[in-house]
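Predicting holo structure, S-adenosylmethionine bound.
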Amino acid sequence: MKNISFLFKYLKYLLSAKTPHGIHSPFVFELVNKVINKKGSYYAYEKIEKLRRKFLISSKEIEVTDFGTGKSGKRIISEIAERSLKNKKYGQLLFRLVNHFKPTTILELGTSLGISTSYLACANPNAKVITIEGCPNISNEAKNNFESLGLKNIETVVGNFDIILSAVLCRLPTADCQLVFFDGNHKKIPTLNYFSQCLEYAHNDSIFVFDDIHWSDEMEEAWEEIKSNPLVTVTIDLFFLGLVFFRKEQAKENFIVRF
Ligand SMILES: C[S@@+](CC[C@H](N)C(=O)[O-])C[C@H]1O[C@@H](n2cnc3c(N)ncnc32)[C@H](O)[C@@H]1O
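Done. Tokens:
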């Protein structure tokens, strides 16, 4: 039943999503053409996807703590890779966002094996990427993966977002939280809590990216509240990701864009 309603939501998105021709905001038009729908490949894409392919055939087992249930159990790397990681299309969009906006500080909530982190970090070696993961064994795997890719601009933090996010944010230079990727704990109240904590550090050029905004009714409700926050100006709904901007020079407008 959930699958049918999800499919229905996706069809609704496809019917309402705009192509660049229907977008009148110059900022969003340029973003869609130069970043969101930009074709072509970057050198970094292949090395990250090669790593993903390695995960997908890995039969290695690790002990994992599930933050939904609080239970521990063994999981196979290939299964984590199949179920938890952002796919190539969205990982590469994260890369292009960082490459275009050049944020100096990037914060990720939800490292998993580190595929999205690698895309974020490769796009701007001068940016500092802080990524938080609750499960220590998964975080260790990610750390090894960053080493194998030669990525030196990533700091891994282990802990529950609910407990450590405020301490991580406190360490960031004021008003320097320029790109935040929210990709863990896809529930309404926690998502809104993380959003409001990060909001205190946001400034005009900050970008917040939310994963799976239509994944459940709770996430849709969270997305609606985020869009209606008075500090939020432009939002872009790409169905599997939602982009949030705070640029005061833009009129408040919510876009649904075909991706
Ligand atoms: C969807 S995965 C992240 C995928 C990764 N961003 C990617 O695309 O490559 C979400 C991760 O968040 C972690 N997580 C979920 N809830 C958490 C919480 N409350 N605190 C810390 N980590 C959490 C999970 O352990 C999981 O590894």
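The two ends are 25 Å apart (CA to CA).
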